[in-house]
Amino acid sequence: MSEGFSSASIPVGARSSGAPGAFWRELKESFRNPEFWALSSWLDIIVRARKSRFGILWLLAPSVVYVFGLGLFFASMQPGGGSNSFYAYVALGAMVFRTLMSAVIGSATVFNGSHSFIMDGHMRLTDFLLQSLAKSFFDFCMYLPVVIVALVIADGISLTGLLWALPAVGLIYLNGLWISAVFSLAGARFPDFGQLLNTVSIFLFLLTPIIWYPEMMPAGSIRSLLMRLNPFYHFVEIFRAPILGDPVEVMSLWYVGIMTVAGLALATLVYRRYARFVPLWI
């Protein structure tokens, strides 16, 4: 969709001002000029929706299928036969996973998909990173109606946990920012990187406790170890556990905290070193 904008329509303040490399400075300028990345993300979704009979309602279909389709199918396999709370468990987990995976896969192809803008030199690279995150945020919003329904019919929802959800979402998107920066550069250098992530996403979904409980993994087993090494597991837990009234594992807090600090430092260094080569790679 971003290809549809003409360079004349880009505000002067949104134009690039030199070779890329200063990650935080360019990011600050992109936030000050959201005309491109925010509008183009929304228009891309609207255009896709207009091509179908049910329009934007189709964007709700994945969340309905994940939550009430898979939830109904797997509920009977859970210890105790499952309950209405299992729908909330699946909904919250699927929403976080979908949001992060959308940012990961979208960022891996965002530079190649914006080839003409980048070669024209009119936009900062951080504009395209935020465009990818904005699309991820719209995916997050499409899950909200189904999540609200699941929470209403569930038992034992913690109101205090709902308040914790706001900083948890902020932390998730802060990690999504550095992941987008690193993966977008990798995707520009290796064009098949996005396809690889699409393939791996199925395995990561099954490895993340979304349609099953972590307690089902035998302690000390290889499967339990892989689950705890999976970063999606910890992001899901810091968001979902408080809402369901469960304690958050200390390991998950340390995992996410260290990953956030190390990831932002990595994104700063990698962007400074390799952002200048993006026009050559694409």
Automatic annotation (TrEMBL):
The question of whether Transmembrane helix is a record keyword is answered with: yes
What is the protein's membrane topology class?
A: Multi-pass membrane protein
Q: Name one GO biological process term.
A: lipopolysaccharide transport
Q: Does the keyword Hydrolase apply?
A: no
Q: Where in the cell is it found?
A: Cell membrane
Q: What's any one GO cellular component for it?
A: ATP-binding cassette (ABC) transporter complex
- Tell me which UniProt keywords the record has, alphabetically: Cell membrane, Membrane, Polysaccharide transport, Sugar transport, Transmembrane, Transmembrane helix, Transport
What is a single molecular function from GO for this protein? ABC-type transporter activity
Domain ABC-2 type transporter transmembrane, first and last residues per copy? 42-242
Q: Which InterPro entries match?
A: ABC2_TM (IPR013525), ABC_2_transport (IPR000412)
Spans through the membrane: 56-74, 86-111, 132-153, 165-186, 193-213, 252-271
- What family does this chain come from, according to its entry? Belongs to the ABC-2 integral membrane protein family.
PANTHER family named among the record's database cross-references:
CAPSULE POLYSACCHARIDE EXPORT INNER-MEMBRANE PROTEIN CTRC, INNER MEMBRANE TRANSPORT PERMEASE
What is this protein identified as? ABC-2 type transport system permease protein
